[in-house]
Every structure is written in structure tokens, then in C-alpha cells.
User: Fold Xanthine dehydrogenase family protein molybdopterin-binding subunit from Luteolibacter arcticus.
Amino acid sequence: MKFDTPAKENPIDQGKIVGKPVDRIDGPLKVSGTAPYAYERHDVVANQAYGWVVGSAIAKGSIVSIDLAAAKAAPGVIAVVTAETAGKLKKAKRNTAPLLGGPEIRHYHQAIALVVAESFEQARAAANLVRVDYAKEKGSFDLAAVKDGAPMASEVNGEAAASKVGDFAGAFAAAPVQHDATYTTAHESHSMMEPHATIAAWEGDRLTLWTSNQMIAWNVADMAETLGIPKENVRVMSPYIGGGFGGKLFLRADALLAALGARAAKRPVKVTLPRAMMPNNTTHRSATIQRIRIGTARDGKITAIGHEVWSGDQPGGGPEAAAMQTRALYAGDHRLTSHRLAVLDLPEANAMRAPGEAPGLAALEIAIDETAEKVGMDPIEFRILNDTQVVPDKPAPPASADAPPKKEGEAKPPEHPPFSQRQLVRCLRDGAERFGWEKRKAKPGQTREGNWLIGYGVAAAFRNSLLMPSAARVRLDDKGVVTVETDMTDIGTGSYTIIAQTAAEMLGVPLEKVVVKLGDSSFPVSCGSGGQWGGNNSTSGVYAACVKLRELIAKKAGFDGDDLEFADGEVRQGGKSVALAKAAGEEGLVAEDGIEYGDLDKKYQQSTFAAHFVEVAVDAFTGETRVRRMLAVCAAGRILNPKTARSQVIGAMTMGVGAALMEELAVDTRLGFFVNHDLAGYEVPVHADIPQQEVVFLDETDPISSPMKAKGVGELGICGVAAAVANAVYNATGVRVRDYPVKLDKLL
Ligand code: MOS
Assistant:
């Protein structure tokens, strides 16, 4: 099904099941410990052996020699795989550094060997006997030190890395109010609950993987490319995933080495990355340095806005897209953005929840707060004054050939593309009222409860809503049961549930009559889980398949025309009704289709918006910061399930508090690795850090986004949170911290 004109009224609008806060279908499995995660699949294939990954002990250089004799002779060892013995491997496009290093070493803990043994303990013990001689080379590990020589990135998210509108330098210099400051964000680790894990089994030249991955089709393609085998020979299953946050978008070492280990051992092999290997072996979010300049007129209107970003990655990597939202969030005639990319020999940088916007807004939304203060305006009023309903950095797309000819005297065509919907102002106003913003003192350091200094902070949130093709297969059987199959994943987001709701609504059956099967490459290719596109696109694919199934059912029932009603397990027309079970017959009915998009996302900017409010208390003597209250008001199209959506947003808000106050991969700039590479040293918030969170969704539908009229919230929820916390800390203390995380040593 092609979606290229705004959605009309359709069965989803009934809202009998879609839009209801139903419990997660996979919830009982997950809380009872019975959801089968990859590493626990003892049942799927017999005779599994265990692989232990050996990581490089240097960051850059090469392996001179590697002595495997002692490891091979150790008890229980079946095989040892290295780059030398693995056969020819190609690096897949989506991996920046090879997943199996050697002789060249590209980063610390890059995998250099896999030891396969009868037991986990034997594999681990033998791995400790692998002796490696390295030739170390000098590397580049410190973003601040190499920032000045960093070239412009070649592109960012398919757009130019730099943008210019008007005369930024002139307008900024002429502005009566100027703000110019530099902000930094830290390297961050996804730190999802379930480590990367894979069981691999070969049957002849066919490979089967039980793994934990967000994007099944990417995983299949990249494994096939790496091994040089046809895609058809790779089957990937990933039905349950214990979190990803972008860290499981790509093929990683666990999967490749399990496949290589299984080939060498001639039996199935399972591999997990121990927690302490995850930060340096897998991907992370790059640190950023961001210079922001904002010039305004006396009345507070922004005349010039500039956002320059530096980040770092391995050679051949990409930048952190932290200035992209600045092209679209606030008005202003003179504009400048850029993304420079330094080569770092740290582990590979890549997407982590709201890549770009999360660190970008962490900086921009402090700068906006600082500018509002200089102008002498309330920060909410300042944001509202500078709202825009078009994307000021982009020219409007050319009028299409079939547009009606322009009449004389008709308004000028828009110069910039409009948003499909943008209710940021409503989010800010609604949130201010609910939060009690009027109690905030504009001057910092004015509210005190005992030793605690109290402050309020606000930030705007912006995250794009991306369109991705997504397909599904839907079956109806003679019991009236509907089975949905798609390679979509559920990374803890609620995909099982919203897909079941979609099919139930479309076919007029109760939820109990729907079975959802996900995460298997033998199913139709979906959008997968990433970039907060999963909810809207995967359900749209299911919608398309259900439209087709409805046609098949109608035909079998002997109905014609489009005035059909699907309800209570029946299809009805006029006064007649036929039970779905009967229409399906013994053979059943199967339909497969997907959603594909035209150019609606070129004509309209499709984005999601929110306002975040935070109250903090800062100990006047120790600088300890406690978040006391958080509120998010979100505008993100139709909310398919307010319960799962709320869970996404409160999880993201929690992650935002981590970015604000705790999370920082500390770099050893001499040796070139992340020192705090486990959850003892890499701190993330726990329940006790987050006392109260409230989430409000504006009641909206976006007919331009998809037939579901939905967008996404999983990444919107983190965007802006760090700045709202930092702004609240400033309001409490009068100390402006521009370097994340905002730790107590920076407040004293
Ligand atoms: Mo997301 S960072 O694209 O999983």
C-alpha cells in the first residue's frame, strides 16, 4: 500500500482497541522470567558449546604474534578462532571497524579471538591463556585536543553537514542581545539490561542465529556480506530483546563470532559479551563540543542562531547529528549550523537513543534559557515568541506539476516547508499550568527548604518522525484467530501489543483472538526498531496487510462494496453478517502487504514535540542534586497505547536524568579506552533517583504521518530532559554548568 496523500477516516479511527491503555502482551512472560532471551535458548538446538571473546588490550596498532598453544591445550577447548584462521571476512557497510580485528587493531576491546569450549567456565579460563604481542601505535583519543583540526563531516542523516541561511555573522554582530557559549556532552554507553548475545548453528552452508537485535533485515544482510554468503542462507531470530537503545541496531561481534565459532567447532556455539566488554567492544554515543550563538532583538525575537558541533569517531565513521534540530526548532532569519568530525581511535561511535537531538538539545536548550535571561524574559514566553510553523533552514519543495495554476492576487507560496503538525506552544503552556510554573522565581537561588536549594527548569523537545517501509503477513483461521507475522522487533517498547491492537481493530476481533509473531527473518521485512520509527511504521504495515485480508474475507463472505463493518468477530453488510471463522473456512485466509511512502515527508516536516519540566533540590553544602518532580507534555500524533507510550517516555526521561547528572564514559587519554566499563563505574539512575514522573499526551492525530496517524515517542521522551535538569539546577543555585554531566564538583 502506497501512502502518499493524507490519511482519510479509516477503521483505526474507531478507537475501540487502538488508543486504549492495554497491558503488554509479553508482560507476564517478562516479569516471570519465562520470555526466552537469546542466550537462554537451550531448547532450540542441541549440543551447544560456549564461546568467550578475547578483546584487544591496546587501542591502536597491530598484533605481532598470537600464541594459542596453551589455550588450545586447556581442558574442554574445542576451537579457537582468530582473524588468521577465520577465512576471508568483509566488513559490512554498517560496521565502521571490523568486528574481528587482527593483525590491525582499531580500538580497545576490539575482538581478536574467540575461544570455544564445552563449558562457559572452560572457555573463559582458556581465553586467559591466549598470549598476544602487540605493536602499539599512537592514537587520537581526546576530542577536545583534536577538535580544531576536525574537518566538516561529509553528510549528516543524508543532508549537508553545514547549513547557512542569510548572513549569520553580520546579524549576530549587530544583535543588541548576544549569547555565545560552548557546551560539552560526554561519551555515553547504551547500557541496556541484556548484553549482546547470540547462538549460532550451521546446517551445511545455512546459518541460523538466535540473537538480540533491533533490525532483523540489517542483521541478515550484514552477516551475509561479512561472511560472503547469500542472504537466503542466513536466518535470524530475535523475538525478545532486553533493551537496545541503538546499541543493537547493527551486527556486532557476538553474532559474527558465534557464527565463526560454530563453523570452526562444527557444532552450535553461543556467545555473549560480558558486561565489562560492552562499552569498548560495541558502539557508544560520541561526546560532543557545541558552540552556540544566539542574537536577538530587544523584544526577544531571535535574529541570528548558530550551532556548531564537534564529535569524533573511528576513520570512516559519522558525526553526532547534534545541530540538526536547530535547523527546525526556532525562528530567525540568519542561521548557521555545522557538524565537524574528528578521527578518534576510541571504540566506534554510533546511534544511541535520539542520536543527534539528545545531546543537541542538551546544549541548545541551556543556551535558550541563558538567552531568555539576558533578554529578561520568562524562558517559556521566550520559546513561544520564537516558535515557527515552518522549517526555516529549508526551502519549500517545488510545487508539483499537477498543482492548480496560481490565481492572481493569491498569497505567495510558502518559502519553507510546513510541519505536518506542530503543537510545541500548547505543550509549553499546558505543562506550565500543570507544573505550577508560576511559582518559579526568575532570579536563581531564591527558594530554600532547610539545606536544599529548590529550582525549576524547562526545555523544549523535538525529535523527527521518520518514515520507513514495513511489511506484514496476516492469517485468519477457522477458529477466527488472527495471526500476524512480521520481522518487527520488540525491544521492550510494546510492539507485540500495539500490533495486536492494530489487527484487532482492523478485523473487529477481541485482542485475545490475535497472535503476534515477531523477530524472525522468515517473516515479511518490517521497519525494525530504531529512531522511534517502530511504532508508527510497523503498525502501518500491519494495517496494509489487514486491508488486504478484509478484502479477501469480504469476497469469501459474498459481500461487495466498501460499506463493510468488521465487528464482534463478524463481517457485516446491510442486514447480513458472516462470522470470520466461517469466511476463513478450513483453508484459512492469508494476506501479505506493506506500507510504502511517497514524498509526503518531503512536502511536510514530520516531527514530534514536547515540553519537559523538572524540579530539583540541590544541597547547599554538598552540591548533591536530587530530581524531585518531572513532567513531560508530548505532541506526537495518535498515541496507539497510552500505557506503553507512557512507559517509553518515563524510561526516556530517566535516561535523560542519567545524561544530565551521571552518565559519562571516562576516557583514559593515554591508553585510549573507556575506563568505567561496567555498571559499577558507569552510573545510571535507579528508582530511588526518580521520585515522581508525569506524562501527558496532547489529544492529536496526524493524518500526514501514516494511516495510523501516529508518530513516535520512544526518543522524544529523552530529548531536552538533560537541559531541563541543568536549567533547574541553575535556577536553584545560580551556578551555570555547561559541561555534562552536572556533577557536584562543578557546583561547588
Ligand atoms: Mo535508535 S538510537 O535508532 O535505536
Observations:
- The two ends are 59 Å apart (CA to CA).
- Residues 13 and 504 are 13 Å apart (CA to CA).
- Residues 214, 244-246, 249, 351-353, 355, 530-531 surround dioxothiomolybdenum(VI) ion (CB under 6 Å).
- The first strand starts at residue 2 and ends at 3.
